[in-house]
Here is the input.
Amino acid sequence: MKIGFIGTGNMGSSIIKGILSSKFEENENINIFDLDKDKVNNLVKEYGVNAVNSEKELAKNCDIIILSVKPHIIPIVLKNLSGNVKKDTIILTIAAGISISVIENTLGEDKKVVRTMPNTPAQVLSGMTAVTFNKNIENSEKEIIFKLLNSFGKSVEIEEKLMHAYTGISGSLPAYVYMFMEALADGGVLCGMPRNKAYEIVAQTVAGSAKMLLETGKHPGQLKDEVCSPAGTTIEAVRVLENGNFRGNVIEAVVACTEKSKEMAGEK
Here is the structure.
């Protein structure tokens, strides 16, 4: 299977790394195109993939085309692809706010289109990706796409209308988590902990807490209660967070992010 990448930034290169690390496909079957020749040359050198000279050349040689460019570049890329995409080629986009209909309107409603939204932990093969398919994608092709997306983390199918909410709770979530972790480390430093130790401790604890939620299947509230001993240190900290409207502020942040995503997509 020939896979082509248009755009080789952080997310595109992360997906390439995942594909090769998981043995989903061999490097000789990966084709890349980017106007930034330094990025292209670095990937060719590091992974042994193939560089092509244009979107047209890539389209003619690939079974899956991954559009990993910024949203405002998508219309230009689609124009260059128009008329050059084979009937059975799958077009997969990772650009925020770019609907399936936008791609269909330029390339044709008969084209196979997959809309995805990965997040930055894909760079360490621990991403979370939402995916939605247009009506032309067959079940066998869905299996291939899930295998590809799972090569750099996990993936879940959702309705396209939920992509904005997904942005609020996953696409943008790493930023919230990093802010939380930085604040925790600052608190540790204030209480005498060396900063490098504070970051190490916080990062491992956050990772362990997430793993515990996934593996136990317990409700987050139950896991929180299990840490809160009567009249103990943890419930005292929880009291302070609740007084600061911690959960309410998080909910409002998700809503604000979701609404901004809708606005950027022209849906408000």
